[in-house]
Amino acid sequence: MFRRLLSAFSWRVLSIPIFLKILGIGFLTAILFGAVTLLQTRASTSHILYQLLEQRTLSMGRALADTIERSASIGNFYEVERYLQDAKDTFPEIRYAIVRDERNRIVASTFGGRVPPDLMKTSSKPCPPECSARILGSSEGLIIDVNFPVVGGYAGTIQLGVLDRMVSRELALLTRTVLWGLILCTAVGICLAILLTGILTRPIHHLVQTANKVREGAFETRARVFSNDEIGRLAVAFNQMGEALMRYRREVQAKEKARLSLIERTVQVQEDERKSISRELHDHFGQSLLALLLQVQSGCKYSPAKCAYVHTPGSLCHCAENTIRQIIGDVHRLAWGMRPSILDDYGLDSALARHIEEITKTAGLDIDYQFISPEGLERLPSRIEVPLFRIAQEAITNMIRHAKATHASVVILRQLHEITMLVEDDGQGFEMSMVQEKGNQCLGLIGMKERVTLLGGSFVIESAPGEGTTIRVRIPLSEEHDGDTNFDS
Length: 489
Ligand SMILES: Nc1ncnc2c1ncn2[C@@H]1O[C@H](COP(=O)(O)OP(=O)(O)OP(=O)(O)O)[C@@H](O)[C@H]1O
Ligand SMILES: [Mg+2]
Description:
This protein is an alpha+beta fold. Among the domains are: about 15-180, 2-Layer Sandwich (Beta-Lactamase); about 350-489, Heat Shock Protein 90 (2-Layer Sandwich), CATH 3.30.565. It has 12 helices and 10 strands. The strands form 2 sheets. A 5-stranded antiparallel β-sheet has the order 2-1-5-4-3. It is rod-shaped and about 190 Å long. Magnesium ion binds next to helix 10.
C-alpha cells in the first residue's frame, strides 16, 4: 500500500514538465540560500551591533557622569536634570537617565519626577570596577542599561538606558537588502530556468514531432541534431533507427512485390489452364461424345427394346445411349465449372446469374442476386470480371458447405470508379479468431483476399457465431489498373 502510494507520488512528481522541474529546483535553491544567508548575516550583524551599542552606551554614560559631576557635587540637581534632558534631545536613542545621590535616592531624571517603579531600584553594579550593561525589555524594544558612579560614587550614580532602535533599524535595513537581493536572484534564476528549459526541451520537442511522423509512416523524416550532448546522441541514435526502418521497409516491399507477382502469375496460369481444359472438354471431348451419341442413336434406331434393369441385346444399345448423354452432361458441367464460357462471352452479370440459378436448383438454397450498374457502361475488363466471379463462386460454395443458411444474397454495385460486391447469408457464422488460428488451412478465404489485393481493393469479412456472414469486396476501377493482369489467354 505504502509502496503503491510512493510510486504514484513519484510518478506524479516525475511527470511534472521539465520547465517546472528546473524552475522549482532553481526557486527552492534561491529561497534556501537566501534564508540561510539572511539568518546567518542577521545573527552575526546583530551580535556586532549590540556589542557596539553596549560600548556606545557605556561611553555615553561615562561622558554624562563627567558632565554632571560638578553640578551633582554641589547639589544643583536642577542643572543636572537640564544636562540629562539635553543629552536625551541630542541622542534620541537615550530612553532615560536617572541620577541618584550617595544614599540611592533619585534626585534627577529625564522622567521629570515620575520614574516608573521598575526603574526605581537599580540592580546593575556601577562601573567601574565591572562595566557590564543590563538588557531590559520594553514595549519600545530592548534597552541597554548602564550605571556609572559620579565622582567615584561620592556624588551618587547615574543610570542610563539606551534603546536598541538603531540596531533594529540596521537589522531591518539588512533584511530588506538581502530580500531584494533574493528577489533579484530569483528573477534572474527564473529567466535562466526559462532559457535552460528552452535549450533542453527544444531538441526533445523536435524529437517527439519526428517520432510522431515516423509513427505515421514517414520513415524518411530525420531528427535535427542540435548538439553533441546526451539529447544530441539520442537524436543520432533515432536517425540511425529511421535508416534501419527504411531499409527494413524496402526489403519488406520488395518481398511483398515478389510475392504478389508470383501469386498473380500463378493465378493467371491457373486461369489459362482452366480455360484451355474447359475448351478442350467442350470443343473436343464434348464434340467427340456428341458424334458417338449420334452414331449410337443411329445404331439403336431399329431396336425397339428400351433400356431396362436386366439387359437384353436390344436394350443395351439404348442404355449406352443414356450413358453417353449422361457423360455429355457431366462434361458440360465440368467444362462450365472450369471456366464458364458465358463469362467470357456475356460477362460477369450473366455468368453469376446462371451460376446462382444452378446452385439454387441443386443446393436448394434461396439466393437473391442483383447486379446494379448505371446505364451505358462498357463491360468490365476480364482481369476484374474473372477474379470477382471466382470470389463469388468461393463465397457461395462456403455458404452451401458451412453456413446452414436459409437465405442468402449476392449484390454487385458497379459505380464509375469502384465496384462493390456484397455476399451475405443468415447462417451460423463463425468466430473470426478461428480463421486466424487455422491460418493457411483457410485457402478459400486466403485466395479471395489475395485476388482482391492483386487488384488493389479491400476485402472485409464480418461474421459471428449465430449472426451470419457478410463478405464485402471493393475494387477500384481506375485507369492505372487497366492491363495489370490479363486472365485472357
Ligand atoms: N459463409 C460461411 N458461414 C459459416 N462459416 C464459414 C463461411 N465461410 C467460411 N466459413 C468458415 O471459415 C472456414 C474457412 O473457409 P475457407 O473457404 O477458407 O476454407 P474451407 O471452405 O474450409 O476449405 P477450402 O479451402 O476448400 O475452401 C470454413 O472452414 C468455415 O468454418
Ligand atoms: Mg471454402
